[in-house]
Amino acid sequence: MRAYLDHNATSPLRPEAAAALHAALEQRLGNASSIHAEGRAGRRAVEEARGQVAALLAVPAGEITFTGSGTEAIATAILGVCARLPAEKRRIVVSAVEHSAVLAAARQAAASGIEVEEVAPDPNGRMAPSAMARRIGLDTGLVALQWANNETGVLQPVREVGQAAAASGAAYFVDAVQAAGKVALDARAAGAHLVALSAHKLGGPQGVGALYVREGLVLQPLIPGGGQEGRRRGGTEAVAAIAAFGAAAEAARSRIAAEAGRLMRLRARMETRLRALFPDLRIHGEGAPRLANTLNLGFPGVPGESLVIALDLAGFAVSTGSACASGAVLPSHVIRAMGGTEEEARSAVRISSGWSTTEEEVERFLDALPAVVARVRETQAAR
Ligand code: PLP
With 0-12 CB in 10 A as exposed, 13-18 as middle and 19+ as buried, what is 183? Predict the structure, then answer.
């Protein structure tokens, strides 16, 4: 029996989301822009989901735009703002531990003449608000900070950085893809103008995301088209996937406290046992507030990729951190930005639990790990 411990890459479809998806497909909902009964039923499903997704951020439903992924929501926000920055504000400030979707969009903006400044975190991977604030000035048009890091789970001081952005008149973008559904969020209290979400990180289907755009902010659409989604994102809405996103958002939000408490206890159990088993174990981000479900480990001398493969063969799905980097065998840019060495950045392994994780799976993982690590160490030594 396999144990799936890679919820930060994708969290399996929640039963509520699966039911909503099946129901939407069976009802043969029409194009949400059509005026006939089938189309109106499609529109109702999309609008119900919009309300459910908006509740994740405590914002009005009308400020949510559905997209095709978290990555698309991020690119829409960053490139959409950058395309309209006045000459005196063509500078953007981002944290160095952002997801590659944010860093790549910022680099694309740089290619069109925007100055991009990446700010390093402290050794725990947390951004010091003062370090961000020092770089934010009247020439800054956009500030980007994630709510929680996908590799370490470290929670960022979004509200404090939002205050610095507001003081300089910069737009403020927050990537909440990993935080949504895991901790309670309030986009307005954080001072965010733009927030990105992704369905599949909280138990919804893959291939659907959302962008919160605060009322009054005008963005250049990344995908122009037929005027869907308030002219912010062209393309026929993926009605069934959006309905399932809404159901997943509702299920995750209604259980945030209970799920976080349960996952925190499971992680504490893992940390205690792993510390006893491996005295040289590294826990990245240990000194910072973290998402309850995320544990980023480093076993000295054990390449993360080799350990992930060996664990996969033993029946456990974990990852080296950013799923987008896996396959390319890149050292983690997050661990590097935290001051980690190349070896540390290559040995990081992420265990991420979620709604489907059981105590029995965690125990099985802890029982199996010592032999798997020993095997990888032996193979390494024999090279
Ligand atoms: N932002 C963060 C923090 C993520 O973890 C991810 C996915 O790994 C994304 C953005 C991209 O989301 P999507 O997979 O929906 O494109």
Answer: middle
Give the count of alpha carbons within 13 A of 180, CB side only: 35
Give the H/E segment covering residue 295.
Answer: strand 294-298
Domains and their CATH numbers in the chain: 3-11+256-382 (3.90.1150.10), 15-253 (3.40.640.10)
Task: Residue 300: count other Cβ atoms within 10 Å of its Cβ.
Answer: 12
Q: Which of 8, 174, 178 to mutate to test the pocket of ligand 1 (most atoms within 8 A of CB)?
A: 178
* Helix (H) or strand (E) run with residue 133 in it: helix 129-135
List active site positions: 324
Decide if 343 contacts 32 (C-beta within 8 A): no
Series of mean pLDDT values for 10-residue runs along the chain (383 residues): 97 98 96 97 98 98 98 98 97 98 97 97 98 98 98 98 98 98 98 98 98 96 92 96 98 97 98 96 98 97 95 97 59 96 95 98 98 95 84
| pTM (whole model) above 0.85 | yes
Query: φ, ψ for residue 142 (rounded to 5)?
Result: -150, 140
**Ligand 1 site residues, Cβ closer than 6 angstroms:** 69-71, 74, 99, 101, 146, 150, 175, 177-178, 198, 209, 323
Judge whether 80 and 142 are in contact, CB under 8 Å: no
